[in-house]
């Protein structure tokens, strides 16, 4: 991953320039940078907010960024994906997001600030596996005919909708968490930081 650091208001923030994984050159370039940091600076960077450019994320596409060592999914949901959230409601453990798995400002029908953009931590709430994309509806990709699209955890079969809400009768007990985040503009968001007063 190609990261660069930038001082913003006296605070270090990681700028995610691309989700591509770098080769050997990228890794070796990173080592002198990390070793030149003091331990306290390293700790700060590890927990620092991550700024993300979503301007190139087309409807129906997903990108993954790392925040505090965790994968955070960002999906630009299509109208069809948003409609599936309504259809799935009766089949979910916590459709109204009563459990504190999201900030208050995402406790709504789409679990998001902007209705189309979903931001969620992609770690299964059962035993921590990484759920995979099952975006196609219906019986394609080995899912049941009534499947509305979302995610399937490969470890024990928990399924999640396009808002990271878990389906009933699956091992995962609660929805995927939505991390604190805010928007700097229509196409730039920061994960790990909240709007003042949010
Ligand atoms: S870890 Fe995901 S279902 Fe068990």
Provide structural commentary.
With about 200 residues, this protein is an alpha+beta fold. The protein contains 3 helices and 11 strands; from the N terminus they run ββααβββαββββββ. The longest helix is centred in the first third of the chain and has 12 residues, at about 25-35. The protein binds FE2/S2 (inorganic) cluster.
Strand content: 25-35%
Main β sheet profile:
5 strands, mixed
Query: How many distinct beta strands?
Result: 11
Count the domains.
2
CATH architecture tag of the largest domain = 3-layer Sandwich
Oligomer: single chain
- Remind me, CATH topology of the largest domain? Rieske Iron-sulfur Protein
Distinct helical segment count? 3
Q: Provide mean pLDDT, rounded.
A: 84
- What ligands can be seen in this structure? FE2/S2 (inorganic) cluster
Q: What is the CATH domain class of the largest domain? A: Mainly Beta
Q: What's the short version?
A:
The protein is of the alpha+beta class.
Task: List the defining traits of the structure above.
single chain, alpha+beta, Rieske Iron-sulfur Protein, 3-stranded antiparallel beta sheet, 3 helices, globular, binds FE2/S2 (inorganic) cluster
């Amino acid at each position: 991953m190609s990261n660069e650091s930038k001082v913003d208001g006296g605070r270090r923030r990681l700028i995610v320039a691309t989700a591509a994984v770098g080769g050997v050159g990228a890794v070796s370039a990173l080592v002198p940078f990390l070793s030149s940091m003091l331990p306290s600076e390293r700790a700060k960077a590890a927990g620092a907010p991550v700024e993300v450019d979503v301007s190139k994320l087309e409807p129906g596409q997903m990108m993954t960024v790392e925040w505090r060592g965790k994968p955070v999914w960002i999906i630009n949901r299509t109208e069809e994906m948003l409609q599936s959230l309504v259809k799935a409601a009766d089949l979910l453990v916590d459709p109204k997001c009563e459990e504190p798995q999201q900030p208050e400002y995402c406790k709504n029908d789409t679990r998001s600030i902007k209705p189309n953009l979903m931001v969620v931590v992609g770690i299964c709430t059962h035993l921590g596996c990484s759920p995979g994309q099952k975006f196609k509806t219906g019986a394609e990709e080995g899912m049941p005919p009534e499947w509305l699209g979302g995610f399937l955890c490969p470890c024990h079969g928990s399924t999640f909708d396009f808002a990271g809400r878990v389906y009933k009768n699956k091992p995962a007990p609660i929805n995927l968490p939505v991390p604190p985040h805010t928007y700097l503009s229509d196409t730039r968001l920061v994960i790990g930081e909240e709007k003042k007063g949010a």
